[in-house]
Amino acid sequence: MHLTSLVLSHFRSHKHVRLDVDAKPVVVFGPNGAGKTNLIEAVSLFSPGRGLRRASAAEMARRPEALGWKISGTVESAEARHEIAFTSEGGAARQVTIDDKSASQVALGRLCRVVWLIPAMDRLWIEGAEGRRRFLDRAVLSFFPDHAQAVLDYEKAMRERNRLLKEQIRDPHWYGALEAQMARAGAEVHAKRQATVMRLARAQEQAETQFPVAALELTQSEGAMPETEADLREALAESRFRDLAAGRTLIGPHRADLYGVFAAKGVPASDCSTGEQKALLISLILANARALAQDIGAPPIVLLDEVAAHLDAGRRATLYDEICALGAQAWMTGTEPEFFAELGPRAQRLQVGAEGAESLVVTAANPH
Predict the structure, then answer these.
(1) What is the model's pLDDT at position 109?
(2) What percentage of the chain reaches a pLDDT higher than 90?
(3) Which of 72, 142, 323, 325 is the most exposed place for a label (fewest CB within 10 A)?
(4) For residues 26 and 60, is the Cβ–Cβ distance under 8 A?
(5) Omega of the bond prior to 226 within 30 degrees of 0, cis?
(6) Closest CA to 340 of 304, 359, 316
(7) 269: Cβ–Cβ under 8 A, 6 or more apart, which residues?
């Protein structure tokens, strides 16, 4: 699975860009602020959700014109070729078309898979549990395109239940239907998260190189997460008095956390060095891509923003070997072309510069 063409119009700092690429890794280099991340953010929109920055459609419009924007591209796999486009006018939510027909986010997720790692994730192991849940849910979504709907259903019902709790409503009849919805959606969310953690664990063991492995466990902030819909519904009912005192729901998948350990050392990821934490994250992204390749017969598109940061030359070489062994079209950004010297002719290169407020992208020669 890879892009063969990409066209941006009035997207972020890119007024107009047209790129023709092949299935090999894509190196994007240039100075800070030139528009490298904007370019791969456009690629990230080829998967469901709000992209790697989680930005609104209005935030993606080129300034100061704010005319709206368009992204289009050709996605090829062994089985098919599709023309996909995204448009936004006047700050409205983006519209998706596949082969000139309107399409849903779920349909997009079934057709195109994209996984990514960005610098904002570098603090994953030491920040709050919410960031780790979001990281895990992106991986879940890559395997189960309908996962986002289950999360939304759960959160919507929980917000209503929390409103009742804050208002100190004690009538059990008000809670029954909401807890049934939370139990149904919550059990589905939990089961898919558990399945994804197991998939990532197995896929890490299948690495071609000796990249660090993260042992993973899905935990709860308090007690254990009920495993079945019936058990979760019963637990929510039993927790009402405690939740009334707290003014919020204290049990459920919204309290989950992803615990990681550097397997070779037996050290919690949160206690590892900055470089080791980055390496463990990269290992999970590659495992996600490897497992998807087994599911769909081809690796997904991989985005690695500023990937060389915190990696020494040895780990960079190992990473590039792993990407090439995977056969993924990996878009990697960095400030200097030297960061990607170990790739040699195995990658194609794009140089991004800036002329005033406009980004310029040109094809750069490969080293021999």
Answers:
(1) 83
(2) 65
(3) 325
(4) no
(5) no
(6) 316
(7) 125, 214, 260, 261, 262, 276, 277, 280
Residues 313-360: pLDDT tens digits? Answer: 888 888 899 899 899 999 999 999 999 999 999 999 999 998 877 888
- In the chain, which ranges are continuous DSSP H helix? 36-44, 105-111, 129-143, 147-166, 172-205, 229-238, 240-246, 274-296, 313-326
Residues 6+ apart with CB under 8 A from 286: 204, 207, 211, 302, 322, 323, 326
The structural domains of the chain, ordered by start, are: 1-122+297-368 (3.40.50.300), 126-271 (1.20.1050.90)
What's the chain's Rg over C-alpha atoms? Answer: 22
DSSP-derived pairing of the beta strands 69-76 and 26-29 = unpaired
Answer positive or negative: Cα dihedral of 87, 63, 49, 163: negative
Other C-beta atoms lying within 10 Å of the C-beta of residue 282 = 23
CB 240 within 8 A of CB 306: no
Average pLDDT over residues 124-130: 93
Question: Mind listing the pLDDT tens digit for each residue in 212-250?
Answer: 889 999 998 777 789 899 999 999 999 999 999 999 999
Amino acid at 87: T
101: left (phi over 0), alpha (psi -120 to 50) or beta: beta
Rounded Cα distance between 348 and 343, Å, is 10
What the block records as the tokens of 356 is 């005033």
**Residue in this structure with the two tokens 């019963």, named with its chain if needed:** 234
The Cα 212–Cα 209 span in angstroms is 9
Three-state DSSP class for residue 203: helix
CA distances (Å), 137 to each of 37, 195, 334, in order? 22, 12, 27
Cα–Cα distances in angstroms (integers) from residue 272 to residues 4, 123, 139, 238, 240, in the given order: 39, 11, 23, 39, 39
Q: Give dist(CA 280, CA 213) in Å, integer.
A: 6
